[in-house]
Amino acid sequence: MKVLQLDPRDNVLVALTDLKSGDSIEHNGSLYTLLSDVDAKHKFPVTDLAEGDDVFQFGVLVGKAKQAVKRGELLHVHNLVHAAEQFGPDDIAEGSFDWTTQPDVSEFKDATFDGYHREDGQVGTANYWIVIPMVFCENRNLKILEESFVNALGYGKASPYASFTQNIINAHLGGNDVSEVTFTETASDPANRVFKNIDGIKFLRHSMGCGSDRGDSDALCALLAGYASHPNVAGVTVLSLGCQHAQISILEDFIKQRCPEFARPLLKFEQQKFPSERVLLEGAIRATFDGLAAADKVSERKPAPLSKLTIGLECGGSDGFSGLSANPAIGHVSDCMTLLGGKSILSEFPELCGVEGEMIKRCTNKPLAERFISIMRAYNARANEVGSDFSTNPSPGNISDGLITDAIKSAGAAKKGGTAPIVDVLDYTEPCTKPGLTLLCTPGNDVESTTAMAGSWANVMLFSTGLGTPTGNPICPVIKVASNTTTATKHDDLIDYDAGVVITGKESIAEAGDNLLKLIIETASGRYTTKAVGLGQDDFIPWKRGVSL
């Protein structure tokens, strides 16, 4: 098969392999002669299009012809412009959604994962101690603590690149050919860890906390509260200057709101209350070490039902295959989680542009739909205020690989949310607490979004990528899913699962989704280490509520 029509309503075909001008392509009894080269992931119309004609993909409006386009001619930015269906309260039809496409979850009905059980009922998929600064002024002290703890506790590893550079230097000084120096990978040895039941100590460096409006500092406190009360966190060390907007007391209030039964260690150090930086750091080191020792003694993985999992759904470096393979497979996992009593989080609101009507119809009640509409309109309005728009979301990489309008990108991205009903709509930093599919307002920026989902208590993330994206999270394992086998092979150091098997026909979407769910169970149990964790990709960027698409 060389082309694919994703929905009967679509008036385009997607190339599954590189096609050349003059090629004759047969599909569903019709013969198409290509008038231009159409690379894999790109598309061409099945009928002649006049200027202004609608273009449909994934069964939704994704653009309008900027000029006349012939049947079999490449559709790209020169002849297609973003367009999307309008949405509003009229799309709300409470109680009308009928979920008819439920997957078979019989294989996973009694499945468990081995997790860390918290006193408040949460179950973690990992066990980290975190150190958080309330303001950027404390980043230097954060760095000192990191240098003091990571290697000494056995969590660090020698940089293979530093060793490589040193070997090059030695060869140069010895008069030898430096081109013959080979690179050798190194790995940390878990046996060297002082605390066997603590997966690591993580340092959440950021540039916020003061100097911006109070809304941003409060949002930072709420986000940090989400990390402090996260199921994957055993304890917290807090560094504060003292005079900043983001106060420890605000952090504590947010923790209590989210987790009234919070009982994990929260060690607080406010620099302006100490006689010197040395005394502050000495106290923080002693107390943190004692906290780690205590947490190590009580930490043990025990079986837990899959209902204790919260799966974050993310995509980045997307391509024209993302909506055909990786994202639908992730959507299958999300639907399975709903049926198994678990939770999943679909974020990146700029990448729901064009599918708002579908999201609205899937909301389980009218207030949820109204909240989604309100947040989407407020977000886009803020973008418009500074001369931007959701339609500018696709990156150059997206465009070159087939995502030529935001609506095309969004329609494919939304596939990560499967087909299940939407049970909750959350604004940035709000915790995910309801079993089923939740929408969370985050920007389209990969790291800002993954940072936010972890703050809303995702304890495992599925991250699809078409081009290869080196993104992780300090406390939440991120499973990278490639949309195509070429990327999976090329970037095997980044990719955990190859969903390109869907494109080649080796696996169905359901089969790929089931395999992903099995990988989640292994990851959540600590039996599989994701590539992002192995590479130390501890990306953490809080979102300033300005415009970030």
Structure description:
The chain has 549 residues and is α/β, with parallel strands linked by helices. It has four domains: 1-81, Archaeosine Trna-guanine Transglycosylase, Chain: A, domain 4, CATH 2.30.130; 128-151 and 196-298, Rossmann fold (3-Layer(aba) Sandwich); 156-192, no CATH class; 317-534, no CATH class. The chain is built from 15 helices and 22 strands. It has helices at 139-149, 160-173, 214-228, 248-258, 277-298, 326-339, 356-362, 366-385, 396-400, 406-413, 446-455, 485-490, 500-504, 509-524, 531-534; strands at residues 3-4, 12-15, 24-27, 30-33, 43-45, 54-57, 60-65, 80-81, 112-117, 123-124, 128-133, 200-203, 233-240, 266-270, 301-305, 310-315, 343-346, 422-426, 436-440, 460-465, 478-482, 497-498. Helix 1 (139-149) crosses helix 5, helix 6 packs across helix 14 and helix 7 (356-362) runs antiparallel to helix 8. The radius of gyration is 25 Å and the shape is globular. The two termini are 35 Å apart. The mean pLDDT is 93.
Main sheet: strands, sense, barrel? 7 strands, parallel
Q: Quaternary status of these chains?
A: single chain
Kindly, what is the distance between the CA atoms of the first and last residues, rounded to a whole number of angstroms? 35 Å
Low-confidence stretches: none
Total individual domains: 4
Secondary structure: number of strands: 22
Instruction: Give average pLDDT, whole number.
Output: 93
Which structural class is indicated by helix and strand composition? alpha/beta
Helix content: 25-40%
Tally of individual helices: 15
Cα-based radius of gyration, to the nearest Å = 25 Å
